[in-house]
Every structure is written in C-alpha cells, then in structure tokens.
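Async update (no meeting this week)

Hi team, since we skipped the sync, here's where things stand on the single-chain job. The sequence we agreed to prioritize is pasted below, unchanged from the tracker. I ran it this morning and attached the output directly underneath so nobody has to dig for it. Comments welcome in thread, and please keep replies under the output.
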Amino acid sequence: METVHPRQRSEMIRIKKKHGPRKGMGQHVVLGSKLKARYIDELKFVSARYLNKEIYVRSTDMNRTLTSAISNMIGFYCSGVPGKDYPGKKEAHLWPHGSEGFSIHCFFVEL
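Output:
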C-alpha cells in the first residue's frame, strides 16, 4: 500500500506502508520507554505520574502524528495505578495496561 502526503503545495511525497502504522506505533512506545528511563527514572526531571503542569505534548492534527504522540506517551507513562490513573476493575482490561491518561494539544498546519 502507498499513501501520498503533501509536503508543500507544489510537492507530494510517497510513503510506502509495508507494515502499516503498527511498526511505527511500536517504535514510538519503545522510544517513550527509553525517554522514561532517562528523564523519570535516572534524572528525576519529571514525576513518574502524569502532571499536566510538568509536560506539554503537541502534535499536528493529522492521524499519523497524533498516533505517534499517543504511542510515545504510552511508553513514557506506563506505570499508572488502576482506578486512579486509568479506569479500574470493570474497564481495566480495555485500557493499555499501566498507561495513564494524558493530553495531546493539536495545532493546525496549513499545507
């Protein structure tokens, strides 16, 4: 499968989707976990639990960039407490295990 994305008004780029979004999502979860190890576990730069006053995540309003941001944050904040940071008991099996809720702020980019 191949998708065409506008880079500039006069230019188009082709992106081959051999593995679909799964591979990139997995790569972002791994990247998020590495960032967590560095900035939460090692440097204690931010809290282990999500606090919106400590971190601000931005993404363009495109599915692929939003998915990347979400996947990255799932890896970064993966130590949540059921019933406190994400749904507990009845709904917990539907939630990515340990992932906390977080905000992704979108901005519009004119192409």
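Quick observations from my side:
The radius of gyration is 16 Å.
Residues 21-42 form the longest helix (22 residues).
Reply here if anything looks off.
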